[in-house]
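// run 5 | inverse folding | seed 20
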């Protein structure tokens, strides 16, 4: 898989964009590289938080739908997911361009892990 990516920045950006490369980095010897392991941990935590947010929003919207019909909830859920994924993609872009950044709360957890 590493042949597909020319350098560390591309692999770190792919970890943000797709999530699976983050697991690849963490589960292979690439985790010894501090740059890649940090961004893999941060990307993995971003993806995990996105999945948790999707599940929580879906449960809350389902509970609201039990009480009354609220048609704007589905487009709202779509927009929330789109904004979160857009932020994850923007993080991947910043890594690819070599810009150092921190994601609030996620960076502290990533640093504690790695």
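// decoded
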């Amino acid at each position: 898989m590493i042949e597909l990516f020319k350098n560390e920045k591309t692999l770190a950006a792919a970890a943000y964009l797709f999530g699976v490369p983050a697991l690849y980095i963490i589960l292979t010897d690439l985790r010894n590289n501090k740059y890649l392991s940090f961004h893999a941990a941060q990307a993995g935590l971003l993806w995990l938080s996105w999945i948790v947010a999707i599940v929580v929003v879906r449960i809350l919207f389902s509970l609201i739908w039990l009480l009354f019909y609220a048609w704007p909830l589905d487009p709202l859920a779509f927009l929330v997911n789109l904004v979160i994924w857009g932020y994850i993609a923007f993080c991947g872009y910043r890594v690819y361009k070599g810009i150092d950044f921190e994601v609030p709360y996620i960076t502290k957890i990533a640093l504690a892990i790695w």
